[in-house]
Specification:
271 residues; alpha+beta; five-stranded mixed beta sheet; two-stranded antiparallel ribbon; 9 helices; binds adenosine-5'-diphosphate; histidine kinase
Length: 271
């Protein structure tokens, strides 16, 4: 609590009273704290790949270059790390646009089936490589969604790539869409992967929050995928939630469910 004292004086300077203002600054402080944490996280996330790149370049400079096979491997590492940094900076720019309310959504009618098929196609190679089966389950007669297609593509991309990353070979992914009352469409991305411990569930949508930092980095993750997905879904007026492990009713696996407006909702809004 912040306390300010303001003396009240009469024109001749006589003190007649004091105004005491008590301000609850808990929220402000929390915001400040989370801002500081965010900057520390960003710095750390950028320093890690930079340090790796530097040491590999030094090794190349100090003789590894003469061994073409090893040199190639080292160059591969620096390229991967560079790509991850680019992803990270792009994700950060994306988030900052949402934070400053500058993100503009170009909403229009979009076929739900197309959205799911496009994302399944995009990952078909990775799915095949990991021997992960993908199933698309669409409710009959589903209306179009009223969304920004590029933004939705990113949501599905983030969720499906997580499902693939955290599901061991031989697993299964289900992409489901169905209507919910109030002219919403629900989307479900379900996997049979490693799941998320209960204690982490509450914080899983926070920026840079990961169950296993090293593992996420190894997989090329930035730790921002879920927070971006949540920003985009919320910007459409929808909600997103994640269930995992026992909470989802089985021993393992993760289910992310989010809702988006259907065109019918938009039509009714216009009337
Ligand atoms: P990352 O780039 O690390 O994947 P995300 O924001 O997409 O960042 O996810 C945050 C963390 O949530 C991940 O590091 C991982 O620990 C956990 N996670 C997300 N999706 C899944 C999933 N489908 N199965 C298991 N863990 C997941």
């Amino acid at each position: 609590i912040k306390v300010t004292f303001t003396p009240i004086r009469r024109s001749e300077g006589l003190l007649t009273g004091t105004i005491i203002v008590l301000e609850d600054v808990t929220e402000e402080e929390k915001l400040d704290q989370s801002r500081r944490e965010f900057v520390a996280n960003v710095s750390h996330e950028l320093r890690t790949p930079l340090t790796t790149i530097k040491s590999y370049l030094e090794a190349l400079d100090e003789g590894v270059m003469d061994d073409p096979e090893l040199a190639n491997k080292f160059l591969g590492v620096t390229r991967n790390e560079t790509e991850r940094m680019i992803r990270l900076v792009n994700d950060l720019l994306h988030l900052s646009r949402f934070d400053s309310k500058q993100a503009v959504l170009h909403k229009q009618a979009a076929s739900v089936e197309d959205m799911l098929e496009i994302v399944a196609d995009r990952f078909s190679f990775q799915l095949q490589q990991k021997d992960i089966d993908i199933a698309l389950i669409l409710e009959d007669g589903l209306p179009d969604a009223y969304v920004d297609s590029d933004a939705m593509d990113q949501v599905l991309d983030n969720l499906v790539s997580n499902a693939i990353k955290y599901t061991p070979a031989g697993g299964q992914i289900r992409l489901e869409a169905y209507a919910v009352p109030g002219d919403w469409i629900a989307f479900k991305v379900q996997d049979t992967g490693v799941g998320i411990p209960k204690k982490d569930l509450e914080r899983i949508f926070e920026r840079f929050y990961r169950v296993d930092k090293a593992r996420s980095r190894d997989m090329g993750g930035t730790g921002l995928g879920l927070s971006i997905a949540r920003e985009i879904v919320r910007a459409h007026g929808g909600t997103i939630r994640l269930e995992s492990g026992l909470e989802a009713g089985d021993q393992q696996g993760t289910t992310v469910t989010f809702t988006l407006p259907s065109v019918e909702k938009e039509v009714k809004n216009r009337v």
